[in-house]
Amino acid sequence: MSSREENSDSEFYDACDNIEKVSDDEDFISIKPNYSSLNSETNQDVKNDSKFIPLHEELNEKMKIENDDDEDKDEEKLNLEANQDDDPFYVDENLLKNEQLTNEQKEERLKEAQEHKTIGNDLFKQEKYLEALESYTKSLRVCPLDFAKERSIFYSNRSACFFKIKDNERCVAECTKSLEFDASFVKPLLRRAECYQLMDKLDECLEDYKKLAELEPKTNSYKMRILELDARIKERNEKMKEEMMSKLKDLGNLVLKPFGLSTENFQFVQDQNTGSYSVNFKK
Protein backbone atom coordinates (compact mmCIF):
# COMPACT_ATOMS: atom_id res chain seq x y z
CA MET A 1 0.00 0.00 0.00
CA SER A 2 1.35 3.42 -0.93
CA SER A 3 2.08 6.06 1.66
CA ARG A 4 -0.67 8.26 0.13
CA GLU A 5 -3.29 5.52 0.66
CA GLU A 6 -2.06 4.99 4.23
CA ASN A 7 -2.42 8.71 4.93
CA SER A 8 -5.98 8.73 3.52
CA ASP A 9 -6.99 5.82 5.76
CA SER A 10 -5.44 7.55 8.74
CA GLU A 11 -7.39 10.76 8.02
CA PHE A 12 -10.61 8.75 7.70
CA TYR A 13 -10.21 7.07 11.11
CA ASP A 14 -9.22 10.38 12.70
CA ALA A 15 -12.46 11.90 11.38
CA CYS A 16 -14.49 8.97 12.71
CA ASP A 17 -13.03 9.53 16.17
CA ASN A 18 -14.59 12.99 16.14
CA ILE A 19 -18.20 11.89 15.39
CA GLU A 20 -20.55 13.00 18.15
CA LYS A 21 -24.18 12.04 18.59
CA VAL A 22 -26.31 15.15 19.02
CA SER A 23 -29.74 13.53 19.34
CA ASP A 24 -31.41 10.33 20.49
CA ASP A 25 -32.39 9.95 16.84
CA GLU A 26 -29.65 7.86 15.20
CA ASP A 27 -30.22 9.68 11.92
CA PHE A 28 -28.72 12.91 13.24
CA ILE A 29 -25.01 13.25 13.98
CA SER A 30 -22.49 16.03 14.15
CA ILE A 31 -19.04 15.65 12.69
CA LYS A 32 -16.05 17.56 13.99
CA PRO A 33 -13.23 17.20 11.47
CA ASN A 34 -9.71 16.68 12.76
CA TYR A 35 -8.11 19.87 11.52
CA SER A 36 -4.68 18.64 12.51
CA SER A 37 -4.76 16.14 9.66
CA LEU A 38 -5.35 18.91 7.07
CA ASN A 39 -2.76 21.17 5.64
CA SER A 40 -2.66 24.75 6.85
CA GLU A 41 -3.79 26.10 3.48
CA THR A 42 -7.28 24.49 3.70
CA ASN A 43 -7.59 24.38 7.49
CA GLN A 44 -9.26 27.79 7.83
CA ASP A 45 -11.75 27.15 4.98
CA VAL A 46 -12.92 23.87 6.48
CA LYS A 47 -13.42 25.44 9.89
CA ASN A 48 -15.60 28.10 8.32
CA ASP A 49 -17.64 25.49 6.46
CA SER A 50 -18.17 23.13 9.40
CA LYS A 51 -21.83 22.85 10.39
CA PHE A 52 -24.54 20.50 11.59
CA ILE A 53 -25.20 17.87 8.92
CA PRO A 54 -28.64 16.20 8.95
CA LEU A 55 -28.62 12.82 7.25
CA HIS A 56 -32.26 13.15 6.18
CA GLU A 57 -32.93 16.59 4.74
CA GLU A 58 -36.53 15.67 3.89
CA LEU A 59 -37.30 14.67 7.48
CA ASN A 60 -35.58 17.75 8.79
CA GLU A 61 -37.63 20.00 6.47
CA LYS A 62 -40.83 18.22 7.49
CA MET A 63 -40.05 18.88 11.14
CA LYS A 64 -39.49 22.55 10.35
CA ILE A 65 -42.82 22.81 8.50
CA GLU A 66 -44.68 21.12 11.35
CA ASN A 67 -43.13 23.51 13.85
CA ASP A 68 -44.15 26.47 11.69
CA ASP A 69 -47.72 25.14 11.46
CA ASP A 70 -47.87 24.74 15.23
CA GLU A 71 -46.70 28.32 15.67
CA ASP A 72 -49.36 29.57 13.23
CA LYS A 73 -52.08 27.62 15.04
CA ASP A 74 -50.94 29.01 18.39
CA GLU A 75 -51.01 32.53 16.96
CA GLU A 76 -54.52 32.02 15.54
CA LYS A 77 -55.70 30.68 18.88
CA LEU A 78 -54.27 33.70 20.69
CA ASN A 79 -55.92 36.06 18.20
CA LEU A 80 -59.26 34.29 18.63
CA GLU A 81 -58.99 34.46 22.41
CA ALA A 82 -58.08 38.13 22.17
CA ASN A 83 -61.13 38.81 19.99
CA GLN A 84 -63.35 36.95 22.43
CA ASP A 85 -61.96 38.98 25.33
CA ASP A 86 -62.53 42.21 23.42
CA ASP A 87 -66.11 41.31 22.46
CA PRO A 88 -68.52 41.95 25.36
CA PHE A 89 -71.28 40.12 23.44
CA TYR A 90 -69.38 36.89 22.79
CA VAL A 91 -71.30 33.67 23.47
CA ASP A 92 -69.35 30.44 24.01
CA GLU A 93 -71.66 27.73 22.71
CA ASN A 94 -69.01 25.07 23.23
CA LEU A 95 -69.30 25.73 26.94
CA LEU A 96 -73.04 25.20 26.75
CA LYS A 97 -72.57 22.06 24.69
CA ASN A 98 -70.41 20.47 27.38
CA GLU A 99 -72.87 21.16 30.21
CA GLN A 100 -74.62 18.21 31.79
CA LEU A 101 -78.04 19.40 32.95
CA THR A 102 -81.18 17.64 34.06
CA ASN A 103 -84.49 18.50 32.37
CA GLU A 104 -85.51 20.46 35.44
CA GLN A 105 -82.27 22.47 35.37
CA LYS A 106 -82.77 23.17 31.67
CA GLU A 107 -86.24 24.53 32.29
CA GLU A 108 -84.92 26.74 35.08
CA ARG A 109 -82.19 28.08 32.78
CA LEU A 110 -84.75 28.75 30.06
CA LYS A 111 -86.89 30.69 32.53
CA GLU A 112 -83.88 32.79 33.51
CA ALA A 113 -83.09 33.42 29.82
CA GLN A 114 -86.66 34.61 29.20
CA GLU A 115 -86.39 37.01 32.12
CA HIS A 116 -83.25 38.55 30.59
CA LYS A 117 -85.07 38.79 27.27
CA THR A 118 -87.98 40.68 28.89
CA ILE A 119 -85.54 43.19 30.36
CA GLY A 120 -83.87 43.49 26.96
CA ASN A 121 -87.19 44.19 25.25
CA ASP A 122 -87.94 47.02 27.68
CA LEU A 123 -84.50 48.52 27.10
CA PHE A 124 -84.94 48.23 23.34
CA LYS A 125 -88.22 50.17 23.51
CA GLN A 126 -86.35 52.88 25.39
CA GLU A 127 -83.79 52.93 22.53
CA LYS A 128 -81.06 51.73 24.89
CA TYR A 129 -79.69 49.34 22.30
CA LEU A 130 -76.34 48.50 23.89
CA GLU A 131 -77.97 47.74 27.22
CA ALA A 132 -80.56 45.63 25.42
CA LEU A 133 -77.73 43.76 23.71
CA GLU A 134 -76.26 42.92 27.08
CA SER A 135 -79.56 41.46 28.26
CA TYR A 136 -80.07 39.37 25.12
CA THR A 137 -76.49 38.16 25.44
CA LYS A 138 -77.20 37.01 29.00
CA SER A 139 -80.16 35.07 27.61
CA LEU A 140 -77.93 33.28 25.13
CA ARG A 141 -75.31 32.50 27.75
CA VAL A 142 -77.75 30.67 30.01
CA CYS A 143 -80.26 29.20 27.55
CA PRO A 144 -79.49 25.52 26.83
CA LEU A 145 -78.81 24.60 23.20
CA ASP A 146 -81.82 22.25 23.24
CA PHE A 147 -84.16 25.23 22.95
CA ALA A 148 -83.36 26.08 19.33
CA LYS A 149 -86.41 28.26 18.68
CA GLU A 150 -85.78 30.42 21.74
CA ARG A 151 -82.10 30.84 20.90
CA SER A 152 -83.07 31.84 17.37
CA ILE A 153 -85.26 34.60 18.83
CA PHE A 154 -82.47 35.82 21.13
CA TYR A 155 -80.04 36.07 18.21
CA SER A 156 -82.68 37.82 16.12
CA ASN A 157 -83.22 40.34 18.92
CA ARG A 158 -79.50 41.01 19.02
CA SER A 159 -79.49 41.53 15.25
CA ALA A 160 -82.20 44.19 15.69
CA CYS A 161 -79.93 46.03 18.13
CA PHE A 162 -76.98 45.93 15.75
CA PHE A 163 -79.26 47.14 12.96
CA LYS A 164 -80.31 50.12 15.06
CA ILE A 165 -76.69 51.10 15.82
CA LYS A 166 -75.88 50.69 12.10
CA ASP A 167 -73.41 47.82 12.51
CA ASN A 168 -74.56 46.04 9.36
CA GLU A 169 -71.86 43.36 9.26
CA ARG A 170 -72.57 42.26 12.81
CA CYS A 171 -76.29 42.42 12.11
CA VAL A 172 -75.85 40.03 9.18
CA ALA A 173 -73.82 37.67 11.36
CA GLU A 174 -76.48 37.64 14.08
CA CYS A 175 -79.27 37.05 11.55
CA THR A 176 -77.32 34.18 10.05
CA LYS A 177 -76.83 32.67 13.50
CA SER A 178 -80.53 33.02 14.22
CA LEU A 179 -81.39 31.23 10.99
CA GLU A 180 -79.07 28.37 11.90
CA PHE A 181 -81.43 27.58 14.77
CA ASP A 182 -84.63 28.28 12.82
CA ALA A 183 -84.29 28.51 9.03
CA SER A 184 -87.97 29.51 8.60
CA PHE A 185 -87.79 32.53 10.93
CA VAL A 186 -88.89 35.44 8.74
CA LYS A 187 -87.73 38.40 10.86
CA PRO A 188 -83.96 37.75 10.75
CA LEU A 189 -84.16 36.75 7.08
CA LEU A 190 -85.88 40.01 6.17
CA ARG A 191 -83.50 42.02 8.34
CA ARG A 192 -80.50 40.37 6.71
CA ALA A 193 -81.89 41.14 3.25
CA GLU A 194 -82.23 44.81 4.23
CA CYS A 195 -78.65 44.84 5.54
CA TYR A 196 -77.33 43.27 2.37
CA GLN A 197 -79.02 46.01 0.36
CA LEU A 198 -77.47 48.71 2.54
CA MET A 199 -74.08 47.04 2.02
CA ASP A 200 -74.73 46.95 -1.76
CA LYS A 201 -74.60 43.16 -1.78
CA LEU A 202 -77.44 42.86 -4.24
CA ASP A 203 -76.98 39.20 -5.16
CA GLU A 204 -77.15 38.08 -1.51
CA CYS A 205 -80.10 40.40 -0.96
CA LEU A 206 -81.94 38.86 -3.92
CA GLU A 207 -81.38 35.34 -2.60
CA ASP A 208 -82.86 36.26 0.78
CA TYR A 209 -85.95 37.82 -0.83
CA LYS A 210 -86.43 34.67 -2.91
CA LYS A 211 -86.39 32.62 0.30
CA LEU A 212 -88.86 35.05 1.87
CA ALA A 213 -91.17 34.65 -1.13
CA GLU A 214 -91.03 30.88 -0.65
CA LEU A 215 -91.85 31.16 3.05
CA GLU A 216 -94.64 33.71 2.53
CA PRO A 217 -95.86 33.34 -1.06
CA LYS A 218 -98.88 35.61 -0.48
CA THR A 219 -96.69 38.60 0.39
CA ASN A 220 -96.55 40.62 -2.83
CA SER A 221 -93.94 43.06 -1.52
CA TYR A 222 -91.30 40.30 -1.70
CA LYS A 223 -92.11 39.66 -5.34
CA MET A 224 -91.82 43.36 -6.10
CA ARG A 225 -88.44 43.51 -4.40
CA ILE A 226 -87.26 40.52 -6.44
CA LEU A 227 -88.20 42.27 -9.70
CA GLU A 228 -86.49 45.49 -8.60
CA LEU A 229 -83.33 43.69 -7.55
CA ASP A 230 -83.24 41.68 -10.78
CA ALA A 231 -83.34 44.93 -12.76
CA ARG A 232 -80.64 46.57 -10.61
CA ILE A 233 -78.35 43.55 -10.87
CA LYS A 234 -78.71 43.44 -14.67
CA GLU A 235 -78.00 47.17 -14.86
CA ARG A 236 -74.93 46.76 -12.66
CA ASN A 237 -73.66 43.80 -14.68
CA GLU A 238 -74.10 45.71 -17.95
CA LYS A 239 -72.14 48.62 -16.54
CA MET A 240 -69.38 46.28 -15.36
CA LYS A 241 -69.31 44.63 -18.79
CA GLU A 242 -68.98 47.99 -20.54
CA GLU A 243 -66.12 48.97 -18.25
CA MET A 244 -64.40 45.64 -18.88
CA MET A 245 -64.82 45.95 -22.66
CA SER A 246 -63.38 49.48 -22.52
CA LYS A 247 -60.31 48.22 -20.66
CA LEU A 248 -59.91 45.33 -23.09
CA LYS A 249 -60.16 47.77 -25.99
CA ASP A 250 -57.41 49.94 -24.54
CA LEU A 251 -55.24 46.87 -24.03
CA GLY A 252 -55.98 45.64 -27.56
CA ASN A 253 -55.00 49.00 -29.09
CA LEU A 254 -51.73 48.88 -27.17
CA VAL A 255 -50.93 45.43 -28.56
CA LEU A 256 -52.10 46.12 -32.14
CA LYS A 257 -50.48 49.54 -32.55
CA PRO A 258 -47.03 48.20 -33.65
CA PHE A 259 -48.79 46.34 -36.50
CA GLY A 260 -50.65 49.40 -37.75
CA LEU A 261 -53.96 48.06 -36.48
CA SER A 262 -56.46 48.96 -33.79
CA THR A 263 -59.56 47.42 -32.28
CA GLU A 264 -61.54 49.43 -34.84
CA ASN A 265 -60.41 46.79 -37.36
CA PHE A 266 -62.39 44.22 -35.41
CA GLN A 267 -66.17 44.26 -35.21
CA PHE A 268 -67.92 42.60 -32.28
CA VAL A 269 -71.37 41.25 -33.11
CA GLN A 270 -73.63 40.02 -30.30
CA ASP A 271 -75.95 37.08 -30.80
CA GLN A 272 -79.37 38.18 -29.55
CA ASN A 273 -80.34 34.63 -28.65
CA THR A 274 -77.29 33.57 -26.65
CA GLY A 275 -75.77 36.93 -25.68
CA SER A 276 -72.34 35.74 -26.88
CA TYR A 277 -70.09 37.71 -29.22
CA SER A 278 -68.44 36.92 -32.55
CA VAL A 279 -65.53 38.90 -33.99
CA ASN A 280 -65.26 40.03 -37.64
CA PHE A 281 -62.14 41.59 -39.15
CA LYS A 282 -62.51 44.67 -41.35
CA LYS A 283 -59.87 46.78 -43.09
From TrEMBL:
This is Tetratricopeptide repeat protein 1. The keyword Transferase does not apply. Keywords: TPR repeat. TPR repeats lie at residues 113-146, 186-219. Gene3D superfamilies: Tetratricopeptide repeat domain. It comes from the Eukaryota. SUPFAM superfamilies: TPR-like. The lineage of its organism: Eukaryota, Metazoa, Spiralia, Gnathifera, Rotifera.
